[in-house]
Amino acid sequence: MILRIIAFTPRGTLLARELAAGLEKAGHRCDARSFRPFPDEKGQPVLPALERESLAQWTQAAFREAQGIIFVAACGIAVRAIAPCLQSKHTDPAVVAVDEGGSFAVSLLSGHTGGANRLAQEVAAVTGGEAVITTATDRAGLVAIDSWAAKNGWRLERPEKVKAISAALVAGRPVSFQSDFPVRGPLPCGYQPGEYAPKLWFTMRAAPSEALKVLPPALWVGIGCRRGASREQITAAVDAVLAEEDLSPLAVMGAATICIKEREPGLVLLCKERGWPLRSFSPEELAAQPGEFTPSAFVQETTGVDNVCERAAVAASGGGKLLVKKRALEGVTAAVAAREITLRLEEKEELG
Question: Distance between CA atoms of 239 and 259, rounded to whole angstroms?
């Protein structure tokens, strides 16, 4: 998580420095600043101070660049600073306010999707204080699906439906539970198989549904293409192969190909537009993939392996199941493989 930290007093600046060190040990990337220069006992700045930048400008930049913001200050200062920047609970970064003594870390904004509740707990662990979390599902000990999805990297289709599910759980009404994946362990309180409203569906399917769909980043699209294939041509082939099995683009983790194609401009542009990582494999790595693949003498002659798209998809998915075999369209081939998923709602989802 990329974090921005700001403090406003000499004591708070010392805590901000401590927080940055502790949170970086936990795997975060931190940039800690003080509102004014505060020297240590040797006369050196404890932290870099804001120079010509105002608090409003710092906050706006933090909203654009960071996934979490920590104010070592009163909640009122934090609220006034972030108010002009607020957009949506599904896109705003996590915001936490901690007093300069480190006694309380308050989750202010994006507690679930943004991860502020978890961040407040991490801050409290560093300071030895207490995390203050006010979201209703957490206070009731319920599993909030948007928080679970954010923690596990799953995607929500139409996340505005989360509100109805949370309201039902807090009110003690059942939420209809459906999963296309094996479920390990008991369902959390409030989630029940059956026809109830609202509905929750764990799936990779693209079919329209009244349920809140929760989709895993489980699919890898393998791609082969002739030299100079355009982004439009590659996009058409990818969308066609997903549509063939009613697979949602939200469930795609990334794309894969052979190493000699990893710099094809059309392929690189597609991955950039969709935010997909692009993995590439050598002919030897592709040839080593177990399974039955659609062979091509031409592909063998030009690349050194009998199939690129199917083998690349399986390789990227860690030996997953080939869901859609090669589909050819205007000089582009595409296939889809999926890693195996086992669902456990009370913990991080596990690979089977």
Answer: 22
d(C-alpha 341, C-alpha 323), whole Å: 14
Please state, in angstroms and rounded to a whole number, the distance separating the CA atoms of residues 30 and 278: 27
pLDDT in tens, 142-175: 778 888 888 888 999 998 898 899 889 888 999 9
Residues contacting residue 199 through CB under 8 Å, at least 6 positions apart = 175, 176, 178, 209, 210, 211, 212
- Of the candidates 105, 95, 66, 39, the residue with the CA atom closest to the CA atom of residue 17: 39
What is the C-alpha to C-alpha distance for residues 25 and 29, in angstroms, rounded to an integer?
9
| d(C-alpha 82, C-alpha 56), whole Å | 8
From first CA to last CA, the distance across the chain in angstroms is 27
Q: What is the pLDDT of residues 217-240, one digit of tens each?
A: 999 999 999 999 999 999 999 999
Rounded to whole angstroms, how far apart are CA atoms 127 and 105?
Answer: 9
φ, ψ of residue 281 to 5 degrees: the values are -135, 150
| pLDDT tens readout for residues 281-312 | 999 999 999 999 999 999 999 899 999 999 99
